[in-house]
Amino acid sequence: MNDNNPESPAWRLCGAVLVAASLLFPSGLVRATETLTLLNWEEYLSEAVIERWQAETGVALQQIYFDSGDKRDEILAKPEHRIDLVVAGRISSDRFGSRSLLELISDAELPKLRNVSQRWRDSCGAYSVPYLWGTLGIVYRADRIAEAPQSWAALLQPTKRDEPHIIMMEDHEDILAAPLIYQQRSINTSDNDELRAAFELLQAQSSAVLTYEYAITSLKSQRHLDQADMALAYSGDQQVLNEVEGIEGEPWRYVVPKEGTLLWVDCLSIPANTPNKALAYRFLNFISDPEIAALNAAELGVATPNAAARALLPDAIRQDPSIYPPDEVLERSQVFETRPMEATQTRRRIISALINAHDAR
Fold first, then answer.
1. What does 120-161 look like in DSSP terms, one character per residue?
2. Residue (of 60, 89, 71) closest to 337 by Cα position
3. What is d(CA 218, CA 211) in angstroms, rounded to the nearest whole number?
């Protein structure tokens, strides 16, 4: 955990582990005649919230996990998918919504959405509703690294250049955000020279990279547990990493580098072809209830866009700068904007080339 938040939230369920489910393996928490399927990041919905939902509705909640936005989009693009709800950002939700693959959100179905300000609603667009938000930064093991990283250089230009000890990620958007911010470029650039410079920085770093698998996925599977001491990560990830089997204490901590960060907003969308549309709306209304949103945010250690929910959070969470960053950090933050598909394809080719070269060694 962050140095400023040494204690876990009072209502956090000690040792709670998110139930991993797939279409073939139902949750089993309740005997339900109906099931709602959520496409989600791993460890990104509180177990206590799942239990409340199932107890109140009698509807089972199954989850399918992805560990990059690209993999999520691949699933959504398949017409035979059986997804009722999906966690996605504005760019993906707009892209799929414009192709009539996502439901145009009806505010009339969501009375509890009034607790979310228009600023956050605008961040998710017409095809989704705000879920959680945060920053992109560096997680590091304080028991192995004496001083907290201050700059993106610690991750991108490590002193131990030939010793694999860093975990990155394969998401073509977020992995490029780090070098672009470090080089004082826009994270939305379509300039080939700027993208090439970012690629070259990542290429030079690659000998120090253990894997481009998302840190939570990699370490929970016990891969690289003894070698990894730094990773590209999202705010809140340190809390999950500190719960990984084999980790003692809370060595993983999170920092936002001085050059700035990516401010991300995760949203919830309803695929247009779901036969469970009414249930999906019911879940969106449920997760927008201030008490439920506060419980979820507290257990995950991630910021909620729900103003009424934030007021219910313990002081330790509301005052934790790794969760709710100070104004000076927000002022140095960038957000992703919609760009031409050709620019997106260029980014995907860059990351594919980077990972293929790394894996070939």
1. HHHHH-TT-EEEEEEEEEEEEETTT-SS---STHHHHS-SST
2. 89
3. 8
pLDDT above 50 (res 14): no
CB 167 within 8 A of CB 158: no
The pLDDT tens digits for 257-316 are 999 999 999 999 999 999 999 999 999 999 999 999 999 999 999 999 999 999 999 999
Handedness of CA 77, 80, 81, 83 (dihedral sign): positive
Q: Can you read off the two tokens belonging to residue 361?
A: 């060694």
pLDDT tens, position by position, 76-86:
999 899 999 99
Which amino acid makes up residue 65? Y
Contact between 305 and 130 under an 8 Å Cβ cutoff? The reply is yes
Segment 5-13 mean pLDDT: 35
Domains of the chain: 34-133+263-331 (3.40.190.10), 136-261+336-360 (3.40.190.10)
Q: Which amino acid is at 292?
A: I
Q: Which of 75, 99, 98 is nearest to 87 (CA)?
A: 75
Closest CA to 125 of 269, 261, 285: 269
3-state secondary structure of 106: coil
pLDDT, residue 184, reads 97
Token pair, residue 270, equals: 């309803």
Q: Are 279 and 59 in contact (CB under 8 A)?
A: yes
The pLDDT tens digits of the residues spanning 161-173 come to: 999 999 999 999 9
Which phi and psi angles does 354 have, rounded to 5°? -60, -50
